[in-house]
Design brief:
With 170 residues, the protein is α+β, with helices and mostly antiparallel strands. It has helices spanning 59-71, 112-121, 136-148, 153-160, 164-169; strands at residues 15-28, 31-43, 48-56, 74-76, 88-92, 95-101, 108-109, 126-132. Belongs to the universal ribosomal protein uS5 family.
Length: 170
C-alpha cells in the first residue's frame, strides 16, 4: 500500500455510513450472551475515506466505536472528475473486486458494501464488480486496497518525469 494516510482529522467534516451489523452470540453456562459488531465507513465525500470495526453489547455503542476506529484509519484517494483515474483490481480474503472509471452521468454501479465506500469517497461515476465472497468485511477491505493503490495523473507524470499530455496521450 502507498503512503497516502491522512495525518489530521480536526478540520475534516466526516459523514459515517453503516455497512453491516452482526449479532454475535457467546454461549456461557448462564445462557447466551449477545453482543454486536458493526463495520462503519466514514468519508468527507471529497477524496478522504476510512473504515472501522466496533464491537459492543449495544448496537449504538458498536457503531460509535466503529466510527472512532474509522477516523484513525483514513486514506486520501485521487478523484478525477467524479470518477477514479484508472482501472484497479484488488483482493482481500475470498473477495475480489474490479473498479473501472465511468463517464459522467453513469452513477455508482456497485453493490452494497462497495457502494458505501465509493460514495463516502465522493466518487459519483464508477463501474464496480465484486467476485468471489460477498462478505462485507472482506469487500470493504478489498475496496480500500484498490483505492489505496490509485494514482493521480499528476503523480504518474511526476514519477515518469514527463508532462500530463504524455500521460494522457501516450
Amino acid at each position: 500500500m502507498r503512503n497516502n494516510r491522512v495525518k489530521s482529522t480536526n478540520d475534516i467534516e466526516l459523514k459515517d455510513r453503516l455497512v453491516a451489523i452482526n449479532r454475535v452470540t457467546k454461549v456461557t453456562k448462564g445462557g447466551r450472551a449477545f453482543s454486536f459488531s458493526a463495520i462503519v465507513v466514514v468519508g468527507d465525500e471529497n477524496g478522504i475515506v476510512g473504515w472501522g470495526l466496533g464491537k459492543a453489547n449495544e448496537v449504538t455503542a458498536a457503531i460509535a466505536k466503529g466510527v472512532e476506529a474509522a477516523k484513525k484509519n483514513l486514506i486520501k484517494v485521487p478523484v478525477h472528475k467524479g470518477t477514479i483515474p484508472h482501472e484497479q483490481k484488488a483482493k482481500f480474503g475470498g473477495a475480489s473486486i474490479i473498479l473501472r472509471p465511468a463517464s459522467q452521468g453513469t452513477g455508482v454501479k456497485a453493490g452494497g458494501s462497495m457502494r458505501a465506500v465509493l460514495e463516502s469517497v465522493g466518487i459519483t461515476d464508477v463501474l464496480a464488480k465484486s467476485q468471489g465472497s460477498s462478505n462485507p468485511h472482506n469487500l470493504v477491505k478489498a475496496t480500500f486496497a484498490a483505492l489505496a493503490e490509485m494514482r493521480s495523473p499528476m503523480t504518474v507524470a511526476q514519477n515518469r518525469g514527463v508532462s500530463l499530455d504524455v500521460v494522457f496521450n501516450g
